[in-house]
Amino acid sequence: MSGYHSPQVTVDVRLNTNESPVGPPPEFVERVAANAKEILWHRYPDRSARMLRAAIGDAVGHPASGIYCANGSNEVLQNLLMTYAGAGRTTLTFEPTYALHSHLSRTTGSTVVSVDRGDDFVLSLAAAQDAVATHAPAVTFLCSPNNPTGVLEPPSTVTGVLEAVEAVGGLLIVDEAYGEFAPWSAAELIGEGRSLVVVKTYSKTWAMAGVRLGYMIGPDWLVGEMDAVTLPYHLDSMKQAMGVAALDYADAMAERVNAIKAERLRVSERLTDMKCHVWPSAANFILFRPPEHAPADVWQKLVDRSVLIRDTSSWNGLEGCLRVTIGASDENSVFLEAMADILERL
Description:
The chain is an alpha/beta fold. It has 2 domains: 13-23 and 251-345, Aspartate Aminotransferase, domain 1 (Alpha-Beta Complex); 39-249, Aspartate Aminotransferase, domain 2. Helix content is 40%, strand content 15%. Strand 3 (90-95), helix 4 (99-107) and strand 4 (111-116) form a beta-alpha-beta unit. Helix 1 packs antiparallel against helix 8, helix 3 (72-84) crosses helix 4 and helix 9 (250-273) runs parallel beside helix 11 (329-345). The protein is globular and about 60 Å long. The two termini are 37 Å apart. The relative contact order is 0.17.
């Protein structure tokens, strides 16, 4: 196997890993520094992360008993797979989608079945339900908004896939790493009688990619089973304190999200004016195909201008495509000016 990675290149404008273009508020940083002085560093952290789970539960309107936290949403996904998938079981993905869904499935010993989306990357509910009925997966993944396409699954699709998954005794994982940029959340469908979990992260909208903190919203019975595979004391005390503190700055987070959504529209319109094929996005990035030019050439010429985006053209189903993260306004302007110049010269 090869590992999952993103190119690390020293550039002035880095728009390749869907990070927040700005950090959290200065007040948050000062509060974190103060919290560090209060931590009993010689003692193990709260194994159950009770304060953090309660704070997240209050923020999302869900009982703390149905919240599970881990080191980034990727560890949440891994622990879900160790609990409910593994050797002798199948996971189902709809491609193209987040590469770690299949990667983590394989590293936990699962057999991966992949179903292609349509040409516009919209998932056919009938095709999805047929795949679930045929393969009876232990775990089915939906990424919404989908990475790397930005496509948002409508409630009818998620509900229809969930019903099919429950009919075969499986679990549906909806990965909402970019959910705060979208108009609806599958968390609305969670219930004690449903086999559904929604996975979230602090990395994107909370501007805390450097912290590595993610969480899951789900039914109590499922969260309780996660303890069987979770390493003891896996969330350190500092991380728990930072997660609690961040939730007091929800207004700043919302302002940051709204600014990114406005820039997303501007970048999308400018790329369309350049004759690029642009897919509608409900996330903090845009998938696009440059007109009649090799994407690798466009990507390299951007790097030559100290702008880094993601070359997705070698990914299955994404021939000719590039993905750009929405950055700060000045970063987006540098990217757009570079793109216009490159396309004019090619």
